[in-house]
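#structure-requests
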Amino acid sequence: MAGIRKQWLDKVGDVTVERVSGVKRSGVTADLSVPPKGDLHTTEGGRASSISVFTNSTGTPTFGAGRAEDGKLHVDQFMPIGEMALTLQNDAGGTETNRECRVQIEVYAFSRQTTKPRWFLGLNKKEMDDATKNLLADLVYEASEAAGIPHRHAGKGFLNRSLSQWDTVAGWYGHSETPENDHWDPGTFDWADLFRRGERWEVWLITGRGGKDDVIAKSDRVRGNEVGSTAARFIAARAAKFSRLLVTGKRPRIVRRRVR
């Protein structure tokens, strides 16, 4: 399918993607001629009740993800990437909503309609833990890569349903930023944190002359939201080596390199 690099995901982080059949599907190919978009939602309920709705009613997304009633993290894929999902309202005439999305994700969680970016787990309404946030970040990253969607927030902000933005700007939108829709999920969500968590970085100690780098040491790969503290520890642990390289004229540098 043109513009779609991968239709089915096998794993997201350490979680195996489960293919769920028997749900309501469109069978319609998404519009691949428009700027590639993804849309993010919260189910306002748990995994079991959400899958029941997708099976017996409608509103089926491409993916469902989160911590479920069994306490475990789950990623469910209901249809191939590039098939039109059914999660958005689409009024007759005007712009297309579902059709212009290559991926839609429902998070098994509750979101808040407040100025504080805070989500709650669908399992027990406790505040969402880091493992669940990391899973969502990895899913958004992997889905972006598979669908050719830029790994960035494209909307104009909570409850700003700009038609011109939707029609012309590629990236990820919230349900609350989608034209023709009146839902407010995923709330006042921290998009910057989501995309940082999806990145991977390394810290390198490098020497070199004449434009050629020699990598002396690397840190482990870390998420983007951890790179600052990792860099500080890396530098402190190699301060003596850095000083020796400096004295010997080997032009040491400590750099951060994004590797995903």
